[in-house]
Design goal:
Number of helices of chain A: 4
Shape of chain A: globular
Helix content of chain A: 10-25%
Number of domains of chain A: 1
Structural class of chain A: alpha+beta
Distance between the termini of chain A: 36 Å
Organism (chains A, B): Streptomyces chisholmiae
Oligomer: homodimer
Strand content of chain A: 35-45%
CATH superfamily of chain A: Electron Transport, Fmn-binding Protein, Chain A
CATH architecture of chain A: Roll
Largest sheet of chain A: 6 strands, antiparallel, barrel
Pfam family, one (chains A, B): Pyridox_ox_2
Strand order of the largest sheet of chain A: 2-3-4-7-6-5
Largest interface: A-B, 98 and 98 residues
Order of helices and strands of chain A: EHEEEEEHHEEEEH
CATH topology of chain A: Pnp Oxidase, Chain A
Protein name (chains A, B): Pyridoxamine 5'-phosphate oxidase family protein
Number of strands of chain A: 10
InterPro entries (chains A, B): Pyridox_Oxase-rel, Split_barrel_FMN-bd
Radius of gyration of chain A: 21 Å
């Protein structure tokens, strides 16, 4: 962090300074945290044999650290650490303008550049797994059987420091050219959100307890 | 395509052969097309200055070609072509097992590896833009002002051949260990889907036509 970076912002880096749409970029810490915490799905990018690879995986934030469920990227981790770019994207709306050119998407995204490392300490790996489970369903980690030693060893958890970070946000209505305002095409925003359906209990012959409150809340939220 | 690859499948390549969870991988063409066509959001990975970069952008399929809205990746395209990995992911459900270890996500994803090139021919760029607009809102390209020459020149559209392609799918309920079936934790699947809210007309003082049928259908779908 440089002297010119306020404590509530991340310091811009070459990797997080876009060449286009600069007005949409932010380094605000609270905004970044909100975008990261608002979903569990991220896309993990790394270089394998000189070529880019992008895999969907799960993430969870713990302060200024990001945990990643790393089993799918494990083959690239042979050397214990891996330069990565982790991207989290929320689509908030479809922006329909009267001109094709001004069509857009309302979105919030975060890019995190850095070096991912495998969490090897057992206690920390356990805490990281709980954080990941709770990121998907808040409250769930306390309501399931914790991983035993064998399971823990079979689960690769990566960690990544939040340092080279930027957010990008597009919000609001379409920006049609003045000359197009009279055109007879509907214009505006179609809001997009993630919805949860009715939970389907496991059909495995096992226990069938009542749906817990934290799951009922997840559906309503 | 090799002699052992059926015409309804993509040929496996080193880049599309995972080292883990092999049973979830498919090269089925129809499955791949369905996953690509089911959303407009993709994550575009490339290598810049030796480091991975993952940007969210829009995609649309036209036969065995993928179009990408490329403005955000334009800086990497200086040499006219760019090795990329394009990943499309649908989250279909949260899988809650009685053990932390067997928690999972039901998802469908596609990875496309290849070399993206900028579409420079004006007629093809125009058709590609229509395809992208219709991928976001089917039917929309015919109901807006088409891009003029200046707008077309300002829009970078990339194309990518569908050749090195694989899909990965996880579906169904949790797979708890038999010893855990009696544990008193709710287990099953919480379905996840994308929902559309009530459209918000532009507040720009311009025309206010009635909501067209293709948008009403998008909300209902």
């Amino acid at each position: 962090m440089t002297a010119t970076t306020p404590p509530d912002s991340y310091a811009p880096a070459a990797s997080t300074t876009p060449t286009r749409a600069r007005q949409r970029v932010s380094y605000d810490r609270e905004l970044v945290h909100g975008i990261l915490d608002g979903t569990y799905l991220c896309h993990l990018g790394f270089v394998a044999d000189g070529r880019p690879v992008v895999l969907p995986t799960l993430h969870a934030r713990d302060g200024e650290r990001l945990y990643l469920h790393g089993s799918t990227g494990a083959r690239a981790l042979r050397h214990g650490e891996l330069p990565v770019c982790v991207t989290v994207t929320h689509v908030d709306g479809l922006v329909l303008a009267r001109s094709a050119f001004h069509h857009s998407i309302n979105y919030r995204s975060v890019l995190v550049h850095g070096t991912a490392r495998r969490v090897t300490d057992e206690a920390r790996a356990r805490a990281a797994l709980d954080t990941l489970v709770n990121a998907v369903v808040p409250g769930r980690a306390a309501d399931c059987r914790p991983a035993d030693g064998r399971e823990l060893a079979a689960t690769a958890v990566l960690e990544l420091e939040l340092a080279e970070v930027s957010a990008k946000v597009r919000a609001g209505g379409p920006n049609d050219d003045p000359a197009d305002l009279g055109l007879p095409h509907w214009s505006g925003v179609m809001p997009v959100r993630t919805a949860y359906g009715t939970p389907v209990p496991a059909a495995d012959g096992g226990s069938r307890p009542e749906l817990p409150a934290y799951l009922r809340e997840r559906i309503a939220g």
